[in-house]
Amino acid sequence: MPDHADGFQFSSTHRSLPMALLRAREVLMDRFRPMLLAHGVTEQQWRVLRVLKESQGLEATELAKRASILAPSLSRIIKTLEGRGFIEVRKSPTDGRRSQLTLSPQGTQFIDTIAPESARIYSEILDKLGQPQIDALLDQVDTLINALSEEQGQGSV
Fold first, then answer.
1. Could you give the CA distance from residue 115 to residue 109 in angstroms, rounded to a whole number?
2. Theoretical Cys-Cys bridge with 57: which of 29, 46, 82, 102, CB 3.0 to 4.6 Å?
């Protein structure tokens, strides 16, 4: 029996792309969560730190986009990470109404402390899948993001 009057029928949640991607995320993050918990950071805080480590500083809007975090959540995360001394918040040199966020030396040290443990966990995943499979998955996810982002006029990854 169709789920809707127009004859549309949902696919099984097992074969639903959004559900499958969420399940994959959960399976992956289950491996990293104990490490993050042991070091007193949330998944979102860790994403912010990682993104800032890769940049020379970002405005909050760009940081939220790159870390896949909603703006209201980012405001709380910024306060927490700044309070711990992990990030520095300064006025943007081009627009005094905006903030420029950078990783502090203490934040860099924190990431460097956790990096070996994170690398070990990632290595275990790599051993199970192999680099070619991980590369193929990443390429497929990028293809999905690019196709759907371009459709909405959001550009690419």
1. 10
2. 102
Contact 91, 103 (CB under 8 A): no
Burial class (CB in 10 A: 0-12, 13-18, 19+), 48: buried
pLDDT, one tens digit per residue, over 2-53 is 556 677 777 788 889 999 999 999 999 999 999 999 999 999 999 999 999 9
pLDDT digits (tens, 9 = 90+) for 94-144: 777 788 999 999 999 999 999 999 999 999 999 999 999 999 999 999 999
Q: Report angle CA 31, 16, 145 to the nearest 5 degrees.
A: 75
- When computed from its CA atoms, the radius of gyration of the chain, rounded to whole angstroms, is 19
Alpha carbon distances (Å) from 82 to 37, 61, 88, 101:
19, 17, 6, 10
Pair 36, 42: CB distance under 8 Å: yes
Q: Rounded to whole angstroms, what are the CA distances from 155 to 71, 77, 89, 137?
A: 20, 26, 28, 20
CB-based contact 47:68 (threshold 8 Å): yes
- How many whole angstroms from its chain centre is CA 87? 17
Directed axis angle between helix 71-83 and helix 43-53, to 10°? 80
